[in-house]
Amino acid sequence: MTHYELIGSRGCGSAIVEAALRLTGLDMRLTDIPYLKPGPGRERLLTLNPLGQVPTLILPGGAVLTESAAMILHLNDAAPHAGLAPAPGSIQRVRFFELLIRLTAAVYPTFTFGDHPSRWTGEGEAARRLRAATDARREMLWRNIEQQVGAPHVLGDQLTALDLYVTVMTHWRPRRRWFDEHCPRLAAIADQAAAHSQIADVLHRHFSGAGD
């Protein structure tokens, strides 16, 4: 295989990696599946990623990456001209790593446990409490990140993969209207990135028709 294959589902975090791939200009193929629905797509996904999660990225040559942060760092190495991360040795590079890990290791798990809380607690009051707790923690994390971002992009003048995360994730709970009210810097960053034609195409494919 000479191209990248991105396995994902519309509206999910695969939109972040899809946008990154488009910015790099690398040869790619998109495979959309309903990743939680039993069937051939999920069966294949489970052979590649035992956690059954998207995005899953198959590299030219067949190696598989299953974590979005690893995908971003790999794509930055494969296509440094795209500027997905700041230059090595710069203070911006340090800030990039800090916020990349914050987004993937702190914010992302609030969706893992909060989107379908009954998986972890069973139905009933415990599930409702877990959903409310993870929603509250996510809002706290976003408010904290709001105080650390620049303009017009997360790290100031350079568009990086952090902007892709923010732009996609403002479509998820607590939704864009909340960001407009409580995290206007992040909302403005999302708007700035969404104005990029390649990113706009990805957002339209994933979120066209979705409500706020």
From TrEMBL:
It holds the Pfam family GST_N_2. Keywords: Transferase. InterPro entries: Glutathione-S-Trfase_C_sf, Glutathione_S-Trfase_N, Thioredoxin-like_sf. The keyword Cell inner membrane does not apply. Gene3D superfamilies: 1.20.1050.10, Glutaredoxin. CDD domains: GST_N_Beta. This is Glutathione S-transferase. It comes from Bordetella genomosp. 9.
